[in-house]
Amino acid sequence: MLEEALREIKRGSAEIIDSDRIEKLLKAYFDEGKRYSVKAGFDPTAPDLHLGHTVLLQKLAIFQKYGATIQFLIGDFTAQIGDPTGKSATRKTLSAVQIGENAKSYREQVFKILDPAKTEVVFNSEWINPLGASGMLTLTTTFNVARMLERDDFDKRYKSGTSISISEFIYPLLQGYDSVHLKSDIEIGGTDQKFNLLMGRHLQRAYEIGKEQSVLMMPILEGLDGVQKMSKSLNNYIGVADEPNDMFGKVLSVSDELMWRYYELLSTKTLSEIEALKNGVADGTLHPKKVKEDLALEITARFHSFEAAQSARDEFDKVHSNNQIPTEIDAYSCNGDVWIAKALVDCNLTPSTSQARRDIKQGAVKINQEKIDDEQLQLATGEYILQVGKRKFAKLKVN
RNA sequence: GGUGAGAUAGUCAAGUGGCCAACGACGGCGGACUGUAAAUCCGCUCCCUACGGGUUCAGAGGUUCGACUCCUCUUCUCACCA
Description:
By secondary structure, the protein is of the alpha/beta class. The chain is 48% helix and 15% strand. It contains 17 helices and 13 strands. The strands form three sheets. It has a six-stranded mixed β-sheet, sandwiched between helices. It binds one RNA strand through residues 161-163, 225-226, 249, 252-259, 287-290, 292, 316, 319-321, 339, 341-342, 352-355, 357-359, 361-364, 375-376, 388-391.
């Protein structure tokens, strides 16, 4: 039982620091029913969760299964600084109202995966604000610039001549201080968070709270392009709130290589089951598309329902395999004869008439399934199905 | 605080008075081939009912028939020195 729990917890992880302690915590749970805490921090600027976030959430859910109380930390204070991890982006400061709304939307989405009874939602402004200037000063004396610059992000930016704000040095310190305040036993995060996660250990030692958290890092999930990490700003994400049809379609659009990555990090299938699928594809007994379809079904069903996932698959076959029109398309209407380029813009199929002309010239535009090549075409009264490329459809009624 | 360098389209990056709506690369979009996969090949990539017109090269002025290119100021960034 303990063995199995450990295996499940370690599955897919990229790196674990002080895994002996995790083992001890688990043992104490199994032997004496003693609970422990696992911390994970989230940024309230991005309440729209995508599958990248769920890698962590699913890991947290497994911890909950084995005696952990989750400290679900919403970094409302630290959001004012902006995590320097990865690219630097100017953050807009959020009002208390916005943060409240975002936190609410977090709850709705997160509890599709986590058990609310074993989760504490906390905000770090609660303890960071009372720190005051002197508390902050004490915090900064625990670390030095040279070590700060060892951090890969900072090092690269420093060497390449990109600016680093002093406040960004504060960010890891505050994240670490969260672990001091919460007395976390374990913290989990992405591998890109390594520096910040280790800061928790450093500060727990400096503040002598009598323990140092273990750290479990999960790999970063690649986005649909298979190269960059999944993120909303890169628009290569699958959102947990995406419609079933979108979700299914997006999973199916990933490359075969990336599919295995998604299986590893997102599927609840066991490692040996996944291995069997790989062998099947390798020796030709399984079609890779079928395997991908199963994954898409599993993921879609997780956030919607099994029925919704199945109808998404049927819809997909209908549109893409049989080249039919989707069941539901956005409908628009307008008056009088309309110039085709204008119509495409009005139906949000194209961002400008210039783009519309180009698309027509390139044979990307279809009206009622018929390819057109006349840029000057006027649409007379009637109903039309407009299509640009393979995926964009709209229904237009000309009065 | 001083000195020097720099800011070009989604990103990187050419252009140092007219040939510039601005080379190239990446990304993105479209087409062919497919399994809406990958790879490959081809085309497109500021806006406008368009063989023409309009707005762009950090911002504001100026010099010039003409400026992304020269000058002044402003904002921001980096390097070295303090």
